[in-house]
Amino acid sequence: MTPQSLDLVGVGKGFGADDILKNIDLEVRPGEFLSLVGMSGCGKSTLLRIVAGLERPDRGQVFIGGRDVIDTDPSDRNLAMVFQSYALYPHMTVRQNIATPLRMRRLSLPARLPLVGRLAAPGAVKAEIDRSVLDAAQMLQIDHLLDRKPAQLSGGQRQRVALARALVRSPAAFLMDEPLSNLDAKLRAHMRDELAALHRRLGATFLYVTHDQVEAMTMSSRIALMSEGRIEQLGTPDEIYTRPATLTVARFIGVPTINLLPVRIGGDGVISAYGRDLGLRSHHAAGPATLGLRAEDLHRSDEGFEVRIHRAEMHGADRFIQCTLLDDASVRFTLRQSARDDIGADGDGRMRLFFAPERAHLFDQSGLRRELRVPEKAAA
User: Fold this and answer.
1) 248 and 367 in contact (C-beta within 8 Å)?
2) Residues of the domain holding 269
3) Is 45 a domain residue?
4) Distance CA 374, CA 380 (A)
5) Is residue 253 part of a domain?
6) Which of 13, 282, 334, 353, by CA, is between 20 and 30 Å from 186?
7) Are 32 and 160 members of one domain?
8) What angle do CA 272, 276, 277 make, to 5 degrees?
């Protein structure tokens, strides 16, 4: 299959008085794995359905491989869609389920088959269907299940059947709407690996919808993080994590959630909190702002902010320590450390936290990222 690009230009959609999508511009490059991620209700599934042709936008254009498909029926867009529900026919075998799109769309008549007039020989059609089904089943390692029915399969096996049914069509692109959300945690992790490997083998274009940031971060070439019908940031997983464009992105991406400290930018650009100079400067206008600190960038120190420990959570090799600022109990911090390390609190459950200034993130009152400047003394 030849991977195709997917392009959306100025796409908007409303339901009643509510704007669900607000002039979305998005380019999915040929052969890339792009994830749409965000909270429920942000518009990601609606956007996917518009690409598929299952919803019509109120405005904007949709291009597949450079061709405008806004007036093209879903069946003529040559897109394969995998849903959250497996949508398998319970009375059919795995073989019959996988073969369904070939029969329905007559994709069983490729140009290479021998033709009699305008019809392929019946035996050649069946042989081509069988070969295509077997190829897809072998790729997803379910060829030994071809004669079973869905009720005889596990959740992971059913999802592989749904993927094989999409794969057999040789589509221009794959659209996936939270396909792993019905699986348990261990199986989801396994299927993430399988989907990523499948993408590498096929080199196909994947547009993937999920609310699970782990899925987006581990499988994607790029991520489009959506909020309230807009794309907050588009970038690689590393870009999204290390340079969040907005406070919304910073809050959504990362486990545990980013720590947020209310700060103030003085007229001289000095950033302070609770009367303390944090060793940071900003060229942004004076006023209140928010400092974001990742859990792995906080360290115990004899200097810095004093916090009170409330609880510690074990996460395998890591321990997440939940604290509140001693000066303001409404400000919460989470510190990540090795589970082998001593927590390091005194008898009253207190300790001091220090952060590397160059690893901090600054957001203004509107939630936009602002550049920080670390004076040489602080950086040293």
Assistant:
1) yes
2) 259-379
3) yes
4) 9
5) no
6) 334
7) yes
8) 60
Mean pLDDT of all residues belonging to the chain: 88
Above 70 in pLDDT, residue 275? Answer: yes
On whether both 238 and 320 belong to a single domain, the answer is no
Tell me the two tokens of residue 35.
């994830």
Residues 279 and 162 both lie in one domain: no
Query: Are 114 and 231 part of one and the same domain?
Result: yes
User: Contact at 8 Å (CB) between 216 and 35?
Assistant: yes
Last residue of a domain, one of 247, 271, 296: 247
Tell me, what amino acid is at 216?
A
Instruction: Check whether residue 269 and residue 227 sit in a common domain.
Output: no
SS3 call for 265: strand
Say if residues 37 and 44 touch (Cβ distance below 8 Å).
Answer: yes
Paired sense of beta strands 222-227 and 33-37, if any = parallel
Contacts of residue 220, defined as CB under 8 A and 6 or more positions apart, other chains included, come to 33, 34, 35, 208, 236, 237
Angle, CA 203 vertex, CA 199 and CA 204 arms, to 5°: 80
pLDDT (tens digit per residue) in 151-187: 999 888 898 898 888 888 778 899 999 988 887 888 8
Four-point Cα dihedral 132, 133, 139, 143, nearest 10: -140
Q: Is the dihedral of CA 231, 237, 242, 247 positive or negative?
A: positive
